Amino acid sequence: MGKIRVVVAKLGLDGHDRGARVISRFLRDAGMEVIYTGIRQSPEDVCRVALHEDADLIGVSILSGAHNALVPRLIAELERSALDIPVVVGGIVPDDDIDFLRSKGVRAVFTPGTPVEEIVKTVNAIVEEKRAG
Amino acid sequence: MRSLKKKERDKLIGDFRSGSVAALARLLSLCESESRSRRDLMSSIYPVENQPFVLGITGPAGAGKSSLINRLLFVFRKRFERIAVLAFDPTSKLTGGAFLGDRVRMAEHIKDEGVYIRSMADQGRAGGVGAGIHDTIGLLSAFGFEMVIVETVGTGQSESDVRLIADLVLVVLTPGFGDEIQAMKAGILELGDLFAVNKADQPDAERTETEIKASLALGRSQTAEAPPVFATVATQGRGVVELAGCLLEKYQELGREGVIDARRSKRVEAHVEEMLKEHCAMLVASEIKAFRTKRAKAAGRINPYRLAGALISKIFKAENNAKKD
Ligand SMILES: Nc1nc2c(ncn2[C@@H]2O[C@H](COP(=O)(O)OP(=O)(O)O)[C@@H](O)[C@H]2O)c(=O)[nH]1
Ligand SMILES: [Mg+2]
Questions:
Q1: Predicted confidence (pLDDT) at residue B269 exceeds the cutoff of 80
Q2: Domains by residue range for chain A, with CATH
Q3: pTM
Q4: Is this prediction's ipTM beyond 0.85?
């Protein structure tokens, strides 16, 4: 099996990427190859990065509260590009929005305080399931 | 990577040939992993007619290699329709994971259909690039890229692999590096066809440039031309057009002199050698494992020369029979 390749993306206009960098480090320490996009990416940009990088999974880090608008756009863009890549979201997301995002196809939402082990376990499980095809 | 079924493989190669970036991206991943079927897979994309300009960029971590590539891309895109960037970062020895952040500096190019950027981990190799690099460049050539830029892991040591895989090597250094030159002696200075002193907006840039030029001239006959040195500021784009122009000129000059062809021959030679060694190493490992389990106890009574001879004949017989099947 090749290494799990995760694209960690910062969607939206806020310029803080501490959260994205912290989660990137955790995933790296769990043995994954983490490709970081940098801040202020559009859903279309992230989709292209995932295409180029042959990503197994996209982790979206979001703080701005614009998740309800941006994440579904990313998922739609992936579909349009015929890319079957699971999306997870990390950030401050209210409960109602979690249900909404999941209904749009987001595989998991990690709110602040989620233990690292749980994030790593979930990511591993989603990728394994997808690779098993 | 699990090995592909024949049908999957044929589809992937078909898609690749019709220009699917997704298929290219998938094949690049397959080539990086240890699959036994890699040689077969790669073999089926040859012969490759297209020979891209392979530019290697090396230098210490943080020198500004990725930032410089970002700027160079704008200039090179006026000349080349399609450019691929392979950006290597180190694999963590402890965990096997990697943080690949080079493309953050090149994010401006994401909407450009003519630029393909791929982040790669060096898999803990010492040479500054990953193990499947020959396959990777082969795939990018077959896909039709006119230029391939390889950013190596910046250890500051002499990354000899980049010399081997690139047509031309650019070494990126920074102000203050001058002091280290004496200590390094050969190494990185012998690696470059061209040099950039990046971060020329910082103090001491001129002095560093002078010192590097002096070191490069050292030990060269007066008629032999020393590699050019450029001052650049990647963040502002200063000196980049001049650097790009010189890189292209040098590539053409070396092409006319037959140097590029000679380097490519060396590259093919190294690739073949690597595959032969890899295969032999695998056979040797399995014989040694057998020795350990079956014969280790009687080691005192064994004639090692005879045993090695017998095993060599056995390996070659087995190989021959495998071929006949
Ligand atoms: N002051 C200054 N900073 C630069 C210059 N080029 C790059 N940098 C900064 O140096 C840091 C490392 O750059 P990067 O391109 O990632 O270096 P790499 O590790 O060699 O790829 C970044 O913060 C850049 O913004 C420059 O010419 N001047
Ligand atoms: Mg870099």
A1: yes
A2: 5-132 (3.40.50.280)
A3: 0.92
A4: yes
